[in-house]
Amino acid sequence: MARRIDDDVRSISSYLTKKQNNFDMVMGLVRDTVRCSAQTITMLHNNDPKNAAKNLESAARMVASLKKYDAEFGYHSKQAYQEYAEAKIFFGIKKSREILSFAKVGVDEESYLMGLMDVMGELKREILECLRENKIMEADAYFNMMKEIYDGTRSVRFAEAVLNGFRRKQDVARILVESAGSDILSFKVKR
After folding, report:
1. Cα(1)–Cα(16) distance, rounded to whole angstroms?
2. Over the range 13-51, which residues count as b (16 or more CB within 10 Å of their CB) and which as e?
3. What is the DSSP letter of 126?
């Protein structure tokens, strides 16, 4: 009888060792994806689209690797997917003045919506930089994208258990839109 339990425990331990190794790999990919996505955003703010594109490609490969483990560890990958979504959406805005669709970003629904909300802070930063450089038309273009994102997501209302953290991000987005509009108006009045 004891021998049979030993065999079972040995088999289960082998299974759990493999699962632990997969988890460790996933967490490393999550950290690297988050870091790579943040670097992409920084490169875009610093007007370095060539290196930003390379970084974004690296992040895309990591996201593809992470997706293979979603059945077991999808919950742990959410942050990486959100950060990647933010970076990819911001890249689309900076490169072609296009707010990328859900299908083009290639993450799950929740991560896409969270990434949309997070990109609002990046747009506000771009607006301030444009105003500093006296590029009012460019600031207006970024502001219009902020409004488009905010207005397009205002009707999204779900329980925290369904879309955790989204309402708070919506509230922050509203404040950012109001603040950016005020900044642009103040700049125009002073001209």
Report:
1. 23
2. eeeeeeeeeeeeebeebbebbbebbebbbebbeeeeeee
3. H
Cα first-last separation, the chain:
88
The CA distance from 38 to 86, in Å, is 9
Domains within the chain, CATH numbers bracketed: 1-98 (1.20.58.2140), 108-191 (1.20.58.2140)
The alpha carbon dihedral of 53, 54, 56, 61 has a sign of: positive
pTM of the model: 0.93
Rounded distance between C-alpha atoms, residue 55 and residue 51, angstroms: 6
pLDDT in tens, 139-175: 999 999 999 999 999 999 999 999 999 999 999 999 9
